[in-house]
Amino acid sequence: MIVRYRNDFAFLKRYNIEKMAVRQAKAIYDFDAEPGTGEISIQTGEVLTVTRTDVGEGWWEGRRSNGDCGLFPEAYVEEITEEVGPPAMAPPPLPQDYSAPSNTYANPPTDTPINTFGTSNPVEDWNADPWSGVSAGVTPQQQTQDWQADDDWDSDFDDESASQVGGQSAQGGHGGAHGNGAPANFTASTDNSGSLALPVASYHRGSTGDVSGVGRADSKKGAGGASSKTSFNRFSMFVKSGSENFILGKVNFNVPEADALTVLDHGDGKYSWLNTKPPFSCVIASPKKEAKFKGLKSYIAYQLTPSFNNIQVSRRYKHFDWLYERLNSKYNCVPIPPLPDKQIQGRYEEEFIEHRMNQLQSFVDRMCRHPVLAQSEVWGHFLACTDEKRWKSGKRKAEKDPLVGGALYSAITVPDKPLDAEFVDREVQVFTQFTGQFDVAVKNMAKLAADQTTKCQNHYKREFQLIGKSFVQLGQAMEQDGGNYNPGLNNAVIATGECYEEVGRLYEEQPRLDWEHLADMMHDYKGLLSGWPQVLHLHSGSQGKRKEIENDGKVGQAEASAVKTRTDTVTYALLAEVNTFHEQRVKDIKSSHQHFLQEQIKFYQKITEKLQETLRMYDQC
Q1: Residues in contact with 45: Cβ distance below 8 Å, sequence separation at least 6, in sequence order
Q2: Are 574 and 431 in contact (CB under 8 A)?
Q3: Of 6, 83, 232, 339, which residue is the least packed, with the fewest Cβ within 10 Å?
């Protein structure tokens, strides 16, 4: 009887929570679950009972008719709201328990764990912190308030890496740390009660997109939405970025004017981005070591002065890191210029600070020159905001921006003419082969520059110093002749040794003028080239989806035409960015090699002048 009454109590509790409403969804596509991930397979037409819709990242939790529980993609179902009446037979009333001062079943013990983390704090939101009640008895509300109180540009994330911190600032971006994207690896498990535990999500750097809008009722009613089967490959950037949703017509956003992009047709098979803002520049200067927490934490602040207002703002490396993540999350169709590599030791050495400032200047220059990135709202906020409250507001706005990843394609206006498939395939193939070979050459040149820098500052320096010491030793030995036969010759020989020692010092200092500059350029292009595989993958995914729909006999002509138009948008964006990349590459390679050769000439001219000056001493002997 006790077991029965306990089950009856659970029934009443569950019935009260459901509030006489059962949420159901009908599967509109087949979905095959990955083993060991907590997902369930569903079949077209199957009706599922929805148990949770706040899982996030485009996933719901539900139960099949056979009792299997698990996760399934929201995009694969259509919700059915069905009101039901009370049960045909009410459960028997709970008997009075005369042997205990309180009703054990009506009031469960407070020390009984009620969530999968062993605490008594209910986890009702997927994004809540389940560990909030574990450490030092701090309530979830207190932790939220603490985070908000700490939300400023000096303490809301670490100095060197915004991507290593939890919470909204780290998980609000793509790829967990960088946007509103789906997890790269989504796994879930069950606890002892058979209920789904929170999934373990593994995030990686770089933009991964957002599938949170997939399958919503408003997105399915959009004009031209493709009804063909969606490919929910959890490891495909094409899917996770939201690009597939755009191709299928499931993206429907009001595009702000600031986000509107346009591709221009130059009539010769070349396309470019329209730059809607006047050109501007930005100068980084005056790096200064500052401290907080009474000197416990130090950092370097750089002063940025944009030309459009000439108002100086102070930014730390972590602010650049945050900006990079926001750009990566928003612009899947544009390779983002890289930042300087992170470094733990030697961050406050003068040489390191100067070199990092030069690399940050290169990043800023590339941002100002790029026709799309230069007009980005988050970039303007980064350069111009001087007020702390406005900074926080703009920061949160950027982190909640819905027009990111594949959704940004809806903001692009392209020429009103279809692209030839053979032309597109040829252009993409040529560029893919080029980037592969160029990437190898760039990495090889970067390695060579690093090797030459090491040799100049160590091996060559030691070699010329050894040569110099040998000449000096010879001259000093000659001075011991006792007769002073030719003091001028002795001095000339010693001067020859000193000349070669000076040549050794020139070799040590020279890499900062030529090889380091060339290495920084190669660093930039290594970073830019590392972004192209993703851009090309998104284009390949869109072409594959277009072909799949065209070969589907169930898809109407109008729907297939709409998909072709959206696919052309992705292609136009790719072609415009390819042209932008090539034009800037030509300028960069030309200027960097001119600079390198000019510095090499100056270097060898200095050596020649010193050798000639020493040679003249022999004429006076």
Answers
A1: 26, 27
A2: no
A3: 83
- Over 80: is that where the pLDDT of 515 sits? yes
User: Residue for token digits 């009001």?
Assistant: 254
- Are 62 and 69 in contact, with CB atoms under 8 Å apart? yes
- Mean pLDDT over 140-146 rounds to 35
Residue 359 has pLDDT above 90, yes or no: yes
Domains and CATH numbers, the chain: 21-83 (2.30.30.40), 282-413 (3.30.1520.10), 421-619 (1.20.1270.60)
What mean pLDDT comes out for the span 159-188?
Answer: 36
Within 510-556, where are the H helices? 515-550
**pLDDT digit string, tens, across residues 70-101:** 888 887 888 886 554 555 555 555 555 444 44
Instruction: Please say whether the beta carbons of 576 and 554 come within 8 A.
Output: no
Please say if the pLDDT value at position 194 is more than 60: no
- By CB atoms closer than 10 A (0-12, 13-18, 19+), residue 136 is exposed
| Report field, pTM of the whole predicted structure over 0.90 | no
**What is the rounded CA–CA span in Å between residue 113 and residue 132?**
14
Opening angle at CA 391, ends 388 and 396, nearest 5? 130
Q: Which amino acid is at 94?
A: L
71 by Cβ neighbours in 10 Å (0-12 / 13-18 / 19+) ranks as buried
Instruction: Strand 282-292: give its sheet, edge to edge.
Output: 282-292, 297-306, 313-316
